[in-house]
Amino acid sequence: EPEVTQTPSHQVTQMGQEVILRCVPISNHLYFYWYRQILGQKVEFLVSFYNNEISEKSEIFDDQFSVERPDGSNFTLKIRSTKLEDSAMYFCASSVLAAGQLFFGEGSRLTVL
Amino acid sequence: RKEVEQDPGPFNVPEGATVAFNCTYSNSASQSFFWYRQDCRKEPKLLMSVYSSGNEDGRFTAQLNRASQYISLLIRDSKLSDSATYLCVVNIPIQGAQKLVFGQGTRLTINP
């Protein structure tokens, strides 16, 4: 069964460092998303991406965040200068339709020290 | 009003019991509704989509009430393996784009 894959599974970084989280969505999916979940809290929408551009982003997704689809398979989330409060699980998801079922990767746990 | 709201629980019920969760949403233009399940420190996984006429999948029944803007999930004959956090997900249409928004989740523990 096709699946969304994410790397790394866990990354520890120092405050102020840049981090890139990588995702390979399901190959025939057209819509891509990043969500985050701070430990013990809800799953929060960060950004959606379609046709090589951001279609929607949340208030959390400020200038420190960016997304890219550098080739036909990868979808990346970059945090330019990490803060302590960026520590969370980051989930990538993809879907066939705009408001269709989301398929999630296993997540990348980011710990900022 | 929050975009998607759920009772966080926790719900603690004995094995074999029937349990029901509700979820309310604020945007009357929402068209897509889902229930996801999340186990501790794992990714959310689709439990079932919610259709206008209501739908059933084994022990699970989902209902949509557009007039009151809520969806529900009923679990019959609960099993120990049903212990998880149940997440309500609703699409929010925004000027041609969409975002799928999660409720805070309802934590369920099934006790032997």
Q: What order do the helices and strands come in, and which of them pair?
A:
The complex is a heterodimer of chains A (113) and B (112).
Chain A: E1 5-7, E2 10-13, E3 19-24, E4 31-37, E5 43-50, E6 53-57, E7 65-68, E8 75-79, E9 88-95, E10 103-104, E11 108-112
Parallel strand pairs in A: 2-11
Antiparallel strand pairs in A: 1-3, 3-8, 4-5, 4-9, 5-6, 7-8, 9-10, 9-11
Chain B: E1 4-6, E2 11-14, E3 19-25, E4 33-38, E5 45-49, E6 55-57, E7 60-65, E8 70-75, E9 84-94, E10 97-102, E11 106-111
Parallel strand pairs in B: 2-11
Antiparallel strand pairs in B: 1-3, 3-8, 4-5, 4-9, 6-7, 7-8, 9-10, 9-11
Q: In words, what does this structure look like?
A:
The complex is a heterodimer of chains A (113) and B (112). By secondary structure, chain A is an all-beta fold. Chain A has no helices and 11 strands. In chain A, the strands form 2 sheets. In chain A, strands 2, 4, 5, 6, 9, 10 and 11 form a 7-stranded mixed beta sheet that branches. Chain A has a 4-stranded antiparallel beta sheet with strand order 1-3-8-7, with no helix packed on it. Chain B has no helices and 11 strands. At the A-B interface, strand 5 and strand 10 of A face strand 5, strand 9 and strand 10 of B.
